[in-house]
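Q: Predict the assembly, please.
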Amino acid sequence: MKAHSQARLIEEMSWTEFAQAIVQDDVIILPIGSTEEHGPQAPLGTAHFIAKYLAERIGKLSGALVAPAIPIGNAEGLMDFPGTISIDPELLQQLVVDVCKNFIRHGAKRFFFVNGHGGNNAALRFAAMQLYEDHGAMVTCNEWWTLMPQISEFKAHDHGGKYETSMMLHIAPNTVDMSACDTQQIDRLTEEITFDYGFFYKGAKLQLNVPTGRIAKNGNFGTPSEEADGSLGEGVSATYAEYCAGIIHEMRGIHL
Amino acid sequence: MKAHSQARLIEEMSWTEFAQAIVQDDVIILPIGSTEEHGPQAPLGTAHFIAKYLAERIGKLSGALVAPAIPIGNAEGLMDFPGTISIDPELLQQLVVDVCKNFIRHGAKRFFFVNGHGGNNAALRFAAMQLYEDHGAMVTCNEWWTLMPQISEFKAHDHGGKYETSMMLHIAPNTVDMSACDTQQIDRLTEEITFDYGFFYKGAKLQLNVPTGRIAKNGNFGTPSEEADGSLGEGVSATYAEYCAGIIHEMRGIHL
Amino acid sequence: MKAHSQARLIEEMSWTEFAQAIVQDDVIILPIGSTEEHGPQAPLGTAHFIAKYLAERIGKLSGALVAPAIPIGNAEGLMDFPGTISIDPELLQQLVVDVCKNFIRHGAKRFFFVNGHGGNNAALRFAAMQLYEDHGAMVTCNEWWTLMPQISEFKAHDHGGKYETSMMLHIAPNTVDMSACDTQQIDRLTEEITFDYGFFYKGAKLQLNVPTGRIAKNGNFGTPSEEADGSLGEGVSATYAEYCAGIIHEMRGIHL
Amino acid sequence: MKAHSQARLIEEMSWTEFAQAIVQDDVIILPIGSTEEHGPQAPLGTAHFIAKYLAERIGKLSGALVAPAIPIGNAEGLMDFPGTISIDPELLQQLVVDVCKNFIRHGAKRFFFVNGHGGNNAALRFAAMQLYEDHGAMVTCNEWWTLMPQISEFKAHDHGGKYETSMMLHIAPNTVDMSACDTQQIDRLTEEITFDYGFFYKGAKLQLNVPTGRIAKNGNFGTPSEEADGSLGEGVSATYAEYCAGIIHEMRGIHL
Amino acid sequence: MKAHSQARLIEEMSWTEFAQAIVQDDVIILPIGSTEEHGPQAPLGTAHFIAKYLAERIGKLSGALVAPAIPIGNAEGLMDFPGTISIDPELLQQLVVDVCKNFIRHGAKRFFFVNGHGGNNAALRFAAMQLYEDHGAMVTCNEWWTLMPQISEFKAHDHGGKYETSMMLHIAPNTVDMSACDTQQIDRLTEEITFDYGFFYKGAKLQLNVPTGRIAKNGNFGTPSEEADGSLGEGVSATYAEYCAGIIHEMRGIHL
Amino acid sequence: MKAHSQARLIEEMSWTEFAQAIVQDDVIILPIGSTEEHGPQAPLGTAHFIAKYLAERIGKLSGALVAPAIPIGNAEGLMDFPGTISIDPELLQQLVVDVCKNFIRHGAKRFFFVNGHGGNNAALRFAAMQLYEDHGAMVTCNEWWTLMPQISEFKAHDHGGKYETSMMLHIAPNTVDMSACDTQQIDRLTEEITFDYGFFYKGAKLQLNVPTGRIAKNGNFGTPSEEADGSLGEGVSATYAEYCAGIIHEMRGIHL
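A: Predicted assembly structure:
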């Protein structure tokens, strides 16, 4: 017997159901993840699982349709770690544009990208630009770890650290091995160039194309993953989803 | 507590687990689906759900690693139906090549593509060719509906018909709405050109670039979906997975 | 003195003649060949010569215009054999699309692709799809060796075997060296994987990206080329051309 | 019975014959034509027929192998005339590079491009550059109408005029309709900008991206085609082929 | 008489001078600008002029070679304003990669990108990634307006505002028209979505693909350009150049 | 205080100034240079400096707007010389098309390309063709060294020789080192193939893809650079600019 999830997942709908739904609400939520190392304790699918989970949660609150999650992103800087897969940013951009273009053809006009991995950001921003230029579509793109520090007490800025591990403990605890947690030893490039979720030189952030593996052997950095806790993941998720549902409400009111 | 599914899903493994596993077995199963109409009774994700399910089942039997499923394929011919999304075959090919190339970098040598949608076939074959040329990797590609009639009594050749609907009733019955089943009325192009899962002219199949929507208004054809049954889906799955595990066994024995 | 061949070859017409002709009949026949090994007895141009010959023969029967033949296709799997040339399927697709696009600009609306080589098939199908999507053009694509078994007693399924050699003996006997015929010794990949114009595993066809050269040292397989006969080639050609002229008649009646 | 043409055409050779030949002489002649208007009297295939004919003639004199002729080139500037087909220069370049790359894989090292159409020149030069950069291959490219005035009394610079029509009268007289000859009326763009096989401003040539059709309604210009004569075509062909065979002799002596 | 500028500009050196210099120091500074609106008072070349000026200043302090400045970048979001030119990020990325690749061929190993425009950032980061992957080259990328607030009292975050106008008053005062300064009236998208050098929703930054022109009619925003002052520009330049020369010193010490 | 150069340089104008100017005159001059060796005496930026200078001079005489100069072109054949940078012709073509496309969006209709380097020619011609096809824009492209011999006594055909060195002595004498002048020793490829700004065989020019470095060790050829003189550079510039201003006048009168 047909029984939809609470969130309206497009892949669970028939084409006739989708046809009716898109007429009533032209917003689509698109989760974009990545398959990449997240330290020895968290799974390769971390960014994918989180993006998918948050998208569905925003879907439930806002009533917007949720597109199939894209499980692969641009993780070039982590390619030294086995199991990581990465596609070129151009390929990711084209993939996202093509998917949205198809939805636009059938009535979608506004998109909410839930991005699970920082390396995807530029490709998604360019996709958004192109969708506006070529199709007049409105797109917003969101990253929970960038947003949280701005609107809450959650200082969620790590990679395979306290926050991402907490999210996975909440979403899919069976994929986490807390016994493998290991506070990362970070190497220095030079005496003057330090590393703290990014390189720093005399107090300012330094863009440097040196892959993570060269300075963080285990692949995770940021606050220690040993401190992770599932309830922290739930708190972040709830705060994030509510805020994002608010944005979607706002987007519906913008004239296109 | 970490507790893997029976199948070894790469996205649930940490990079350290993957690093150990790929050394012991260099085969990776890659499911490729599609998001496209499957009639009014079956979900848009049908091809994706089936590919993912079958890949995991083969993974359990064979012990080979299972990559994240790609949910989108080439469904150009079905773009008249709302909710269908399609990417160019070149994009799909590049996506698959890039994903496999990354795994090859970390030790994979043999790939088993579980394809859930006929429109993907050519792109996957070209990807396989390229992976051999550029990386010496061995690839086999498999479609359950093509294979079944050759090795069993299951004449599984439809689109949103008896067999695909049966598979979904077995895999995710909550996504099927049997009350929406509707034996498709098929239109003709000319008096002489008939249609039966493809165009025919005087008894021979005719390749013609006319989209499905022009002749099948509901989007499904083949044997009536009203006859679908979950146990049929289970039977097909079991037969298919066992046969494919045999191929993987054989592939391991081929010198590269 | 100007004296056209019986078939209306576009390259032999002046632009003023073409301009008049396309107004009266908007169908164009496009032969696509390949330059690739066909065993030690048949020429590298076999697929090209056959496509060109059959296209002209269909042209005569149907009155449709015949475009210049494309002599090169996708023969990646045969690249181990000297003299074989191959272009990427994307390049072939773009080439065919561009050629047709130009004809469409000047009035063509329907295309009949006469394909001389199996490796071209996917590229041609995608070209057809694109021509419909972007230009609303109707395309059919045909392969004589696939068609023959469906409509006649000719079981024409080989590569450089009885049928292809017979075609060349009919079309250009001076390019065949019957004394070089050699029934191909076929190697096995494993005990369980056999080869018979394709790999087979337990009775079902197996897509495997292993190039022909690895299992067929001479490059030809299928029925023995020693049995080839020019009159067989004539029989196949006559049956094929008549059937295809029928399709063209049918295509003219489809509303675009 | 196998009986080769005097020129060694690769498409008429079996792969075993090619394998032996390329070891003895690593030069390949590649004819590149175009399908484009040449006035009301000459066929659309003029540039293609001439390139093919001259390549075979050089092949006979020099003993070098002759590749299949490419019948389509870049004729963008003539697209106003029905029957003209044109591909992008990048596509032509890639096509030529891919074809040569394949021959290089099997032993070819030097290429002689016989170009039948001016619009192809830049693409062929870039292809040559790329073949040197990526494969260390030596390429020369030749155009008969540019060469003739430098080494003979033949002032062969027209389009569908006296010289090209003479060539066709020699090569394939049945494709020429001398009764349709018509001295072209040339329009001016401005009082100061004149046209004579190219625009001129105050005595100097002016590159201007205005298509031919805007100033030459019939599509041909240069010396009047009414003066064409088959024996002139024979004279040009003989002179050209002998000179080019000399270049090939010279190329064989250059260390690579 | 040859007399170099104090900075060692590659375009002013002969190839023999460059050949000697690159052996002694393998760092190259590459300025990348943009041609885009900067309000009614500042010139379209603002980002280009600043990048070029700062690169030369860093060159003087550090002794590193300075490459020709790229005057065009990705300014898609400003395309509503006449005179703005923009290239796709992929094109910019390829351009930068190709330029650096050439320098690498002749001995360069480290690059310092001086970026004058925020829209270029992602393309430059991807170029850096690619240069590491394909050539093992080290790249850092720097933006003065992002850096200043981290290391000084200069809160240089505007577009055509106080800081950019001050820079131009210092570098090329003749290109600024202070009488045209006009504090920008900023429109809102909705009641809840505000704008302050970017969109904000409830206190957090909101990525939204709405072009600048829709909310800022004059094209400039940030602190009022009326407050601009040349000495402020000199102060920023001096601080920035000294800091960057320090980074270059550090880069030379990193093992590659 | 704002004080424009005599030439109307777009990068020195604000967007509001540009918006007014383009309405009154729709012609834009675009200089395209190259960064490449020009012998031991002339700077790597020679082609770039000359193109920029001539464009501004034509701008002053004609009143047409002058776009930012593109400093990099296609110099593949000179890549053996350190400091030379080269981009693929396709990249250059796309760059030029994108820049012009943007100007067209804001009112430009006619373009005058001032090309400083022969290797750019084909890319610029294809860009022109594309701008006509896609945007109906008129483009002319000009090279001073090709033009001069047709309209004056200046036989300006060299590379880093008398003429180019004279131009640099006039434009930027501080970048020339006359003491480094060295009449180039030219090597031969074979006894029969000579070199004089291009290869020659029996008196006719021979296109051969052999890079300059193989036959001219110093990188310059043509008339000896020792004879260079600044006043000669001034003479060429004056003649060229006046002629080109005349063409622009003519272009304004052509109906589009």
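Chains B and E do not touch (no CB pair under 8 Å). Chain B has seven helices and seven strands.
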